[in-house]
């Protein structure tokens, strides 16, 4: 009777010494692998204004028009090999011809003659654009200066590698093609990331963990085995 009762009873699980705390932890889920969500949305990170609306395709007609204009510019300069001076002269010539025809035909159809838009010659707009470019340039130079000083070796190596890759790409592609590819990425990557944010965050977090493991292996197997000279003690 005792043996039958003992066989039917549930035997409590006894933890062996070979089991570690990591074995008893639950497998990481998607929420733990994902990076911490930012406090601000992508729209606010991009400025939250018209530029952000264009990059995130909030106004599809405007974004599609800008993308079509960039594609047409790339086709004229890179495929058709149009000269910039020739294109500028033809554009101004076409604009002057249209204004001339409009000015001649305006009294016939009882319309007002054309006027120069104030936005084109606005001093405030040019001043704001110049100040924005100056702030961005000053910030970029300050960041590059801090990186070049070697305060963060990992960031320094990343920037050097990125510049080298960009130089190799620029050697094989024209400036117009490189500019168009960058413009195309700016109009597609933020919108795609906003749509598939969860999946991208999961992949980025997973890739970051893999890179950290790879860096630890290289550090332990290669960098730590490099012989170093004796440390000289400072004599008082």
Automatic annotation (TrEMBL):
Coiled-coil intervals, chain numbering: none
Record-level GO BP terms: response to bacterium
Annotated InterPro entries: Reticulon, Reticulon-like
Record has Transmembrane helix as a keyword: yes
Keyword line: Endoplasmic reticulum, Membrane, Transmembrane, Transmembrane helix
Domain (Reticulon) ranges: 51-236
Compartments where found: Endoplasmic reticulum membrane
Bias kind Basic and acidic residues: ranges: 14-26
GO CC terms of this entry: endoplasmic reticulum membrane
Residue span of region Disordered: 1-32
Membrane protein topology class: Multi-pass membrane protein
Transmembrane spans: 83-105, 163-193
Record keyword Repeat present: no
Protein name: Reticulon-like protein
Source organism per UniProt: Lolium multiflorum
């Amino acid at each position: 009777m005792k043996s039958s009762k003992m066989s039917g009873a549930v035997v409590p699980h006894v933890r062996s010494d070979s089991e570690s705390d990591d074995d008893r932890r639950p497998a990481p889920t998607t929420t733990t692998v994902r990076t911490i969500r930012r406090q601000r949305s992508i729209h606010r990170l991009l400025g939250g204004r018209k530029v952000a609306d264009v990059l995130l395709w909030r106004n599809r007609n405007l974004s599609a028009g800008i993308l079509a204009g960039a594609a047409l510019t790339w086709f004229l300069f890179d495929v058709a090999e149009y000269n910039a001076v020739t294109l500028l002269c033809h554009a101004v010539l076409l604009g002057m011809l249209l204004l001339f025809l409009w000015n001649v035909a305006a009294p016939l159809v009882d319309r007002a003659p054309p006027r120069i838009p104030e936005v084109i010659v606005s001093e405030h707009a040019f001043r704001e654009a110049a100040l924005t470019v100056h702030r961005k340039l000053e910030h970029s130079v300050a960041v590059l200066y801090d990186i070049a000083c070697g305060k963060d070796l990992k960031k320094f190596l990343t920037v050097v590698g990125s510049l080298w890759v960009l130089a190799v790409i620029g050697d094989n592609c024209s400036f117009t093609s490189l500019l168009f590819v960058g413009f195309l990425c700016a109009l597609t990557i933020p919108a795609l990331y906003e749509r598939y944010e969860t999946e991208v965050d999961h992949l980025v977090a997973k890739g970051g963990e893999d890179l950290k493991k790879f860096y630890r292996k290289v550090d332990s197997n290669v960098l730590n085995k490099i012989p170093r000279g004796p440390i000289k003690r400072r004599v008082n």
